[in-house]
Write a structure and sequence with these properties.
heterodimer, A: alpha+beta, eleven-stranded mixed beta sheet, B: about 250 residues, alpha/beta, Rossmann fold, six-stranded mixed beta sheet, 9 helices, about 35% helix, about 25% strand
Chain lengths: ~850, ~250
């Protein structure tokens, strides 16, 4: 029996294979599955790579990192948990040579380095790498090849760092304890431990790293000890995740959210196609029942047909996803060294199965209708049922749940979903207003335009489904493209709007005084200077940070490292208050803070919650009394956490400063002078910033362009599906019009006017939706001021109008192939 | 003088291509529906074309309405102005002067009865469309169903709306293909009476294709199309029928 039904389903599948609604359905399913499978395979490859990367590059079983050197007692305790401990220290500094400068990570090691793995060096840029035991001798410095090239140094040259001179004696090829290989782009330099002492850098700027050889149980003991005794320290270990894994998970979540947009569009397309499916399947099932078949037979045939359709697609999807996966891996190999492509059959199968389940949810209204069908349906056409609406609502709920699950940024997801809902309401309202006003105002005139308004108003329900489908797709497409364009523009405009062309991100009090003196001496414009202390959040509401929340987010990623805690009496010009009350002048209650709104949302914090910070080895607990957001126009130095000015009297910690400087072309060479005297000032020139931005922009452009292509493809399918869904009705309408004595030309004219009105509604809806989304999301999520360009909007409007109209007219050409004879043939 | 449609020596045939012959591109046979057929239709008169299925009745209707071209022969249309000039034109010029009524009614499902009737007037830019549609709705006895959609109307009511829609823009000729084919005897009689009466009142020529001898017998001219030949059947009741129709007009 089953075999017989499968044969029958196969037969009908072949019969329907080339029908437009089946073709469209296959396109939607294939595009979405290829995207999802490629994304999953690529993510998995990166996760595996990072795991392998961790094992190879940790250079120890565990690494304990902290700002201060361990006390003798702490070191003794640490040695209890390990077989061997090797101490290294490192600092961010700037090396100068012949008027050139380059920031680099300077690491000091002893003769016991490395603990595990191989230290590779060479005697010249062209020589092969050799395994080296122990670091450089005192007075020697080893530089990596990029640093050598950037400062145009050669082996044997002498460079000056602070008051010390160093001989460049080797090229540094590889250090085994470098976790960030391939990801951290900082240039590297290696010196002897004893030289670090001689350089006399401020103690609080040096990062002390303890490479530990330990068993699994010892590592666990070590972690427990660190959490209890050294909460501000950081541990990386082989049992844990790669520091980049969290970053990648967030990237993945962002892509996941993007794929949700694709799912939404696919759902719209499938919903439109399902209208045709529903009628055909219901009719077919009723005919079968009238011939004595059971209701279950019709349902089974429909299920089998749907399954065959999916099964036929799977080899194509698997093959193309494999090819795209290979392409993505090749592209990523520029960033992730030695990443390799592998065939992942099981994962491919699992992902396809999940997608198929989602498709089944979208398609379920068709099957539910078949459950309710009866022979009487042949006599009474289409009774809409409540349960069908319920199923569609369930499908929407599934989509929202998937969106929430994928996203790491609750606020962004909420905003995006809200924007979609607002756009839906907007498009419905605009449709009603435009058609009602259009009909009313044109009533007094004769011609085809008033007639089209009249017809569209009369068919508001069926027409608005079409408008909504295309409108939402256009909105998503427009938003993606606008975002790409605005992001590019903002980055391009950075040079013009940024206050200052040199940004000081860290300068100690002594260094800041030197900067002030130096800028005054050379008449350099020092625009802003704001003080801060380094603070690390260890507890929220008395609960350890890693226990408080495990959901990755931008905020959590940042808070897991030391942050800059700023003190100020008044609300800075760069901020505005969004909730709570700002502290009064000379506030006696000094343990209060204002937190950036996005951090509050990401971590689910409220006013009155407490944050415990470790500041210079001391613990301080603050209560959140206010929340602030970035206010553009008054500079770019902003802080996530701010406390009253009175607080600083109670905190014993080194002060640092952020500042911005404006240098003219002649003053650039003077920077080398400053850096040579104060190599630990962290400064970045706009040139370097824009270089980083360009690199990010290139990556963002590639990702968004690929994404936009997917959306354009799906948008075209949505338009075709919506036309396909109404084709029968349109054909009949055209035939009826011709039976009133009109020519095909009139039908074509009506069609053009109708598509122009449709496109107008869609364009207004999509642009308004994009505008609202821009206002909602740009500022809060990407710190971009949203200033819509009306010329661009007008051009966009024209492009949408003409594209939708042309595509609509082209796709509805079949409905113009109607005739009065066809109406007679329906008899 | 009323307007008229003339078919002179028209023949209609088509290629019968079966799926097997599509593959082989041979064996395509020509099927001739009728040859050298002459027929004159005058405004204000009613005509019934009967005959067995497949005889070509609907094709003849399409030729008369100018929507299809004959394989050979000529169709001409003589309107009021041309009558004085004694000069006829092609049937293409007939397009704006004709209306259709179908067996399946073909009302637009999204529109109410009133708006379905107003449709051809709206298309012509008639500002009085709704007023005239209301008047016609009254004529066909459905003024209380103005705001009902087709799915809320019975078959008979839908066909009344279709009749009103076909006549509302005062066409000179109405072509009806099995207008009562979907209705029971009682409804069929009622619809037929309304159709004939309304055409008469509007001085529209009515051409009906039907299998129903009852319906055909109401026409002033009855033709039978069979075996490629069109023969006029004399209607003994035609005079009585005409009197009946005149009575009906008074009530229409």
């Amino acid at each position: 029996m089953l075999k017989h039904q499968l044969q029958l389903a196969w037969y009908y599948f072949q019969q329907e294979y080339s029908q437009p609604h089946q073709k469209l359905l296959r396109w939607v399913q294939a595009i979405l599955m290829i995207f999802i499978v490629t994304l999953t395979l690529s993510s998995n490859t990166i996760q595996h790579y990072l795991q392998g990367n961790l094992q190879n590059l940790l250079g120890a079983d565990a690494v304990l990192t902290q700002k201060n050197k361990l006390t003798t007692k702490q070191l003794t305790l640490l040695e209890n948990f390990s077989d061997k401990v090797v101490n290294t220290s490192q600092i961010n500094t700037t090396l100068t040579f012949n008027g050139k400068w380059q920031s680099a990570k300077l690491k000091a090691v002893g003769n016991d380095y490395p603990l595990q793995g191989q230290l590779l060096t060479s005697t010249s840029l062209q020589s092969p790498a050799i395994v080296t035991n122990g670091g450089p001798l005192a007075g020697n410095i080893w530089l990596d090849s990029r640093l050598l090239a950037s400062l145009t140094l050669s082996i044997g040259d002498v460079i000056k760092l602070g008051e010390q001179t160093f001989i460049v004696s080797k090229v540094l090829i590889h250090e085994p304890d470098r976790l960030m290989e391939g990801h951290n782009v900082a240039m590297r330099a290696l010196v002897n431990k004893s030289d670090m002492k001689k350089l006399a850098f401020p103690a609080d700027l040096i990062q002390h790293r303890y490479l530990i050889s330990a068993s699994k149980s010892q590592v666990q003991q070590l972690i427990d000890w660190q959490q209890e005794q050294l909460p501000a320290a950081h541990i990386n270990h082989k049992l844990g995740a790669h520091p980049l894994a969290l970053f990648w998970q967030r990237t993945e979540n962002f892509l996941g959210l993007a794929s949700i947009i694709l799912f939404f569009m696919a759902a719209i397309a499938i919903e439109q196609i399902a209208q045709v499916h529903l009628k055909k399947e219901q009719y077919f099932s009723a005919i079968c029942m009238s011939l004595g078949a059971s209701k279950a037979t019709g349902l089974q045939l429909s299920l089998f047909k749907w399954l065959i359709n999916i099964v036929v697609l799977i080899p194509v999807v698997a093959l193309l996803s494999g090819v795209f996966h290979w392409l993505v891996v090749s592209w990523l190999s520029e960033t992730f060294a030695e990443i390799t492509w592998q065939l992942e059959l099981w994962l491919t199968a699992k992902t396809i199965a999940t997608s198929v389940l989602l498709f089944a949810v979208f398609h379920s209204p068709v099957w539910l209708t078949l459950c309710q069908t009866s022979v009487s349906k042949l006599f009474h056409q289409n009774h809409k049922s409540m349960s069908l609406g319920l199923v569609k609502l369930c499908a929407l709920l599934v989509l929202v749940l998937v969106a929430v699950n994928y996203s790491d940024n609750g606020l962004l997801t909420l905003m995006l979903v809200s924007s979609i809902l607002i756009t839906i309401i907007l498009i419905v309202a605009i449709s009603w207003v435009v058609l009602t006003l259009g009909e009313k105002t044109t009533q007094q005139f004769s011609g085809l335009v008033p007639f089209t308004f009249f017809m569209m108003k009369q068919r508001l329900l069926s027409k608005s489904t079409q408008i909504l489908g295309i409108g939402l797709s256009t909105f998503l497409l427009l938003f993606t493209l606008m975002f790409l364009k605005d992001l590019g523009n903002t980055m391009g405009a950075y040079q013009r709007t940024h206050d200052g062309n040199v940004m000081v991100s860290q300068a100690s009090q002594v260094e800041m005084n030197a900067i002030k003196k130096w800028s005054k001496e050379y008449d350099i414009n020092l625009r802003q200077a704001k003080p801060y202390v380094y603070a690390k959040v260890v507890k929220i509401n008395n609960q350890a940070l890693n226990k408080f929340t495990t959901k990755p987010s931008d905020s959590l990623a940042t808070l897991s490292h030391s942050i800059r805690l700023h003190w100020t009496q008044d609300i800075p010009k760069t901020n505005s208050l969004v909730q709570g009350t700002w502290w009064k002048k000379d506030a006696e209650k000094w343990q209060q803070i204002s937190l950036e709104e996005e951090v509050m949302t990401d971590l689910g914090l409220d006013l009155g919650d407490t944050l415990t910070f470790i500041i210079n080895q001391q613990s301080y607990t603050f209560t959140i009394t206010a929340s602030h957001v970035y206010k553009p126009g008054s500079g770019s130095i902003i802080f996530w956490v701010q406390m009253p000015q009175t607080a600083i009297q109670h905190i014993n910690a080194p002060h640092y400063n952020m500042a911005s400087l404006e240098l003219n072309d002649d003053q650039w060479p003077l920077l080398g002078q400053l850096w040579q005297k104060h190599p630990t000032i962290r400064m970045v020139s706009l040139q370097e910033l824009t270089k980083q931005f360009d690199a990010i922009l290139a990556m963002v452009t590639k990702v968004i362009s690929g994404f936009a292509v997917m959306i354009i493809l799906l948008a075209i399918i949505v338009i075709l599906s919506s036309i396909n869904a109404l084709e029968g009705k349109e054909k009949k309408k055209n035939s009826v019009i011709m039976s009133f004595g009109f020519l095909k030309k009139t039908c074509l004219q009506l069609n053009i006017i109708e598509w122009l009105i449709t496109a107008l509604i869609i364009a207004i809806g999509a642009i308004a939706g994009t505008y609202i989304t821009g206002m909602l999301i740009y500022q809060s999520q990407f710190s971009l001021p949203y200033q819509p360009d009306f010329l661009i909007l007008f051009i966009t409007l024209t492009i949408i109008l003409s594209t939708v109209t042309l595509l609509g007219i082209y796709a509805s050409r079949h409905s113009l192939k109607s005739s009065v004879k066809q109406l007679m043939a329906d008899n | 003088m009323p307007c008229s449609i003339e078919l002179k020596s028209v023949s209609q045939s088509f290629e019968n291509i079966s799926s097997a012959s599509i593959a082989s591109k041979v064996n395509a046979s020509t099927i001739t529906l009728f040859e050298n057929l002459d027929l004159s239709i005058h405004q204000g008169q009613s005509y019934a074309i009967t005959g067995p299925s497949g005889a070509g009745k609907s094709s003849l209707l399409m030729l008369l309405s100018g929507l299809e071209k004959p394989t050979s022969g000529q169709g001409t249309y003589l309107n009021d102005k041309q009558i004085n000039d004694n000069h006829s034109s092609s049937l293409d010029n007939l397009r704006s002067e004709i209306g259709f009524i179908f067996q399946q009614f073909h009302l637009l499902p999204e529109l109410t009865a009133l708006h379905n009737i107003a449709l051809p007037l709206k298309l012509r830019g008639d500002k009085q469309a709704i007023k005239k549609a209301k008047h016609w709705l009254e004529k066909v006895g459905l003024s209380d169903r103005a705001n009902h959609k087709p799915s809320q109307l019975s078959g008979g009511e839908q066909q009344r709306v279709a009749i009103a829609r076909a006549l509302v823009f005062s066409p000179k000729f109405i072509f009806a293909d099995e207008p009562t084919g979907n209705l029971d005897q009682h409804n069929a009689n009622e619809i037929a009476d309304i159709l004939f009466a309304c055409c008469k009142e509007n001085n529209a020529g009515l051409i009906i294709v039907t299998h129903s001898s009852d319906l055909a017998s109401k026409a002033q001219n009855i033709y039978c199309l069979a075996n490629g030949e069109l023969t006029k059947t004399s209607s003994t009741n035609s005079v009585n029928k005409q009197q009946d129709e005149e009575k009906q007009v008074a009530s229409c």
